[in-house]
Write a structure and sequence with these properties.
The protein is mostly helical. It has a single domain, classed as Amino acid/polyamine transporter I. The protein has 15 helices and no strands. The longest helix has 38 residues. 60% of the residues are buried. The N terminus is likely disordered.
Length: 426
């Protein structure tokens, strides 16, 4: 499974990404998902306590990031924790991780497509759904041209997003309406209770999961043993700083109640801060950030699907690699088709919770896998793996009950399906 050379056979992907490309792909996944989509549901769960939930989610995300980086350096191939679980814990655990990632991140793709449409087209819901489908189809076409183009496009989208957020934060504080009084004092941080804070952390975890995209692109990263352990923590650290600054600014400008009600929380924030003239810019930035996240998500889900198909855990047709562009074209087309169906039928807040369920299970297995690595593969202490595993389990249990039920049903279907296939093969 290891090896970091640049040579590639006809069924292998090409190693073209450096540290900068990998960091940008992670940032594109996280920033679009978190800043423009997750603060609203988190405020509904915990009020001002969403900031505490953000810190909890960041700590658990750091544990997961170190586990992923350590594993990806040892197993530099496409598939992420699906591969690590198979190698360290056994094939069934690998399947659970891969199924959780594919299901959860397909839901994330739908969430990002819907977020893009909500910011880009503040019109009728049916128009937004059509625009969301067009966004999925357009980015799938871009991904089809190869991973280097994906990294280049994501770099542009991340730059636009960061510029927008910088202007937004400056406008909030220069507008003169932002004040800590809108939060309600220190007691407001715990008004939602422990359950509300943990639920907010679980929902905000959805925003941190973009660093996994670097690991799932392991077969396309140059010198993965060096590149991946540097890129994953760096992308996460940059994102945490951005989230804290924007989250506090939004709370001080709009207050938790308005954030919880708003379909586009950052648009509501600039309006409450007295700088409504920035609303068009925020809409453009939200649309571009969501496109950046969706672009990287499609690439990541497609490559985990490829890895599962190579091992016959999904139909073999999905394992095809394009002879010219060297991307898993069948897998990406299949993912795009499913996302388009979800976009036409899903609710944004519901798919965020459902996505968090699948991804938290995925990272629980990542931490368990990293815990078993020998000393010569370790870069971080095992205590972080234990903390990450326990944190993922707690956040899964704290998610909205509808998300938990849907997640349990989906995992049950996946495990039952695999059991039937294995029995027929035997």
């Amino acid at each position: 499974m290891s090896g970091s050379g640049n040579a590639a056979g006809p069924d292998r992907l090409a190693r073209r990404l450096g540290v900068g490309d990998a960091v940008v792909i992670g940032l594109g996944s996280m920033i679009g998902a978190g800043v423009f989509a997750a603060f609203g549901p988190a405020a509904a769960a915990a009020g001002a306590g969403l900031i505490v939930g953000l810190v909890v989610a960041a700590v658990i995300a750091y544990c997961n990031a170190t586990a992923s980086a350590q594993l990806a350096a040892a197993y530099p191939t496409s598939g992420g924790t699906y591969v690590y679980g198979r190698e360290r814990l056994g094939h069934w655990w690998g399947f659970v991780a891969g199924w959780g990632f594919v299901v959860g991140k397909t839901a994330s793709c739908a969430a990002m497509a819907l977020t893009f449409a909500a910011y880009a087209v503040p019109g009728p819901w049916w128009v937004q759904r059509i625009v969301a489908v067009l966004g999925v189809l357009g980015l799938t076409t871009l991904n089809y041209r190869g991973v280097t183009r994906t990294a280049q496009a994501t770099r542009v989208l991340v730059a636009c997003s960061l510029t927008t957020l910088t202007v937004l934060v400056a406008g909030i504080w220069l507008g003169g309406h932002a004040s800590p009084d809108r939060v309600g004092g220190w007691d407001a941080l715990t008004a939602g209770g422990a359950y509300g804070i943990l639920q907010a952390a679980g929902l905000l975890f959805f925003a941190f999961a973009g660093y996994a995209r670097v690991a799932t692109l392991g077969e396309e990263v140059r010198d993965p043993a060096r590149t991946i352990p540097r890129a994953i923590p760096l992308a996460l650290a940059i994102t945490v700083v951005i989230y804290v600054v924007v989250g506090l600014s939004a709370l001080f400008a709009a207050g938790p109640e308005l954030l919880a009600r708003a379909a586009a929380p950052l648009v509501a924030t600039v309006q409450a801060a007295g700088v409504g003239g920035l609303a068009p810019l925020v809409r453009i930035g939200g649309a571009l950030a969501s496109l950046g996240a969706l672009l990287a998500l499609i690439a990541g889900v497609g490559r985990t699907t490829l890895a599962m198909a190579r091992n016959h855990d999904l139909p073999g047709w999905l394992a095809a690699v394009h002879p010219r562009y060297r991307i898993p074209h069948h897998a990406e087309l299949a993912v795009a088709a499913v996302v388009c169906v979800l976009v036409l039928a899903a609710d944004l807040r519901g798919v965020i919770g459902f996505s968090s369920f699948g991804v938290l299970v995925y990272y629980a297995i990542a931490n368990a896998s990293a815990f078993t690595q020998p000393a010569d593969q370790r870069r971080w202490p095992r205590a972080l793996n234990v903390l990450g595993l326990l944190g993922c389990v707690v956040l899964v249990a704290a998610l909205p009950w509808t998300s938990v039920v849907a997640g349990v049903v989906m995992f049950g279907l996946g495990l039952a399906g695999r059991a039937v296939v294995l029995r027929r093969r035997a």
